[in-house]
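PROTEIN SPECIFICATION:
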Amino acid sequence: MGTTTGRARAWALAAVASAALGASACSIDDLGSDDEFGNPPTAGDTFDPDQGGDGGSTTGTGGGDAGEDTSSETTGPPECADENKRCPHEFSLLDQGYGNVTLIGDFSPSGWDVGLGMGLDGGTWRVTADVPWDTPVLYKFKIDDGAQYIPDPDNPNQVEDGFGGFNSVLDGQTCEDWTCDPGLIGDFDWRDSVIYFVFVDRFNNGDPGNDGPIGVEALADWQGGDWAGVTAKIEEGYFGELGVNTLWLSVPLDNTNVSGQGNDGYFYSAYHAYWPQNLDATEEHFGTLAELQQLVDAAHERDIKVIIDYAMNHVHDTAPVYADHPEWFWPNDNGEGGNCVCGEGCSWGGDQGRRCWFTGYLPDFNFTNAEARAFSVDNATQWILDTGVDGFRLDAVKHIEDSWLIDMRARVAAEIEPMTGEHFYMVGETFDGDRDTIAYYVQPSMLDGQFDFPLRMELASKLIMRQGSMSELAGFMDSNDDYYGAGIMSTFIGNHDIPRVVHLAEDIPLWDNAWTDGKDMAWTNIPLPGNEAPFERLALGFTLIFTIPGAPLIYYGDEYGMPGGGDPDNRRFMQWSGYSSGQQGLRDHLEQLTTIRAEQTALRRGSRTTLSADQDTLVYEMSYANDMVVVALNRADGNRSAGGLPGGSWVDLLSGQVVSGTSVDLPARTSMILVPQ
């Protein structure tokens, strides 16, 4: 690679790993790999999705060496306590004509509910799971979506399951190449993360020299935001003042400069960065690789982590990799005489969802092809090595094969984490309301967490839009608190695929459905609400997500309640001045929340218990060790009394007010965050 620009971080070791990956010198705008399509796959390393199962992979998940180490340092598994170590173990079952098989058990927090889909390989169903270090594991096989449940016929060690059947028992396993539970490597705990999504093209223009609109309508064209602009805001202290310690950046890969027609009839540029063309070069509208490295360095100097969006599902049809290797991509053919565009000739879910094209110009990678998978995982790994980023936001994970995620996690565990001594956070996007679908990917062999879409939609509906009751929200949260096990989920109230949330918070919401994409008002330049109430409701939404476990997300501009309908109106250029009093009040409240969250461990790592809920109020407790915080919310447009508090005197961290007793009086659209006096 070019230079490390004086980095003090462990990424100076990237040259060693790059050598192991076959990297060589390159221009500053290219990645370090000189093998355009990655290293050849291991013989026989293939996966056939048509051989039953739910898309499970036959690829192993254990850690390993990065290759020949030419330095004097040795690498190996990351260090962590024995109780946090995990060992890869392959489970197998001889096929008896089954349609699909799922491994279920206590190998992971969600193992009994979600399990792992097994793949059929030469007459035997197989899957590799990470099992706890030296700890017996109970398991069995779920056959044909639950038509029957059977213990392992090849394992005589069984115990009664309490339902008239038996569970198999795997004796405690140890291994030389272990992995560690997410968040338990290094000094940074990702439960402490506050994420800010920098939508790069619309954030800050630091270098007008790389501007370059392509001639479509301005809302859908490049508008000049770049990495130099993000770095400037880092150095000005914008994120530090807001209390953000993690930046999520748009996909950095080079995109096409060809326009594409959306399903609304308008033509768009690739300003969103999800139409990759040259996968080993940076997006020229954002800047050079050196500028991206400078951004990461500037963030790290201020103890801010950086995760990059990585789009592995597809490329643009002008991409060289598509021209040179069409066999690495699914054909746009549903097998029934029609196309396989998602939502048209093919469905968005299931097997079709893993091979459908998002549009007719975005060919979909076929990661059952081992060469394609190796190329893509190599490419993603090289971006980590060349930039020094701390994590990935992985796009559209339900649309790819499990094997890509498993291989990526194994690669990170083997090559990245031993170098950095820090956990590499991988959070996925599965835009879905089904919690089982989302939870399926939250396990040590795949993802640390996902964006909690079901929680966001319940929060938006009940708290921000005032549909249903706060009791219903409490019931959902009670069921959701432990749904994803040890996963570090990201909680949010707004993102780039839904309309700006301030319009759901208006006195009369502009839409009546929290799941709306807002495309019916995507080009209308919706004005900012003129009264204070919508911003106070947003403040309540932020209060909730900043006082429960997870990694809360701020979508750029939501700290000021920016307006906007669906895409592209929800992606206006960042507002840097001229704030209304409602906007400024929301921004000040959010800064209070980040400060309180940083000071109160119970809010980041504690367990939540509902204390009371009714039509308009919700009170819950967050407890951790001997610490306790009580949160009270009132969504109503008038004063309400909220009960259920433990007796005693309390201080509201938002206002400084001292209250006592088992209830508090909350003015309209306000909250309290209470600690014992």
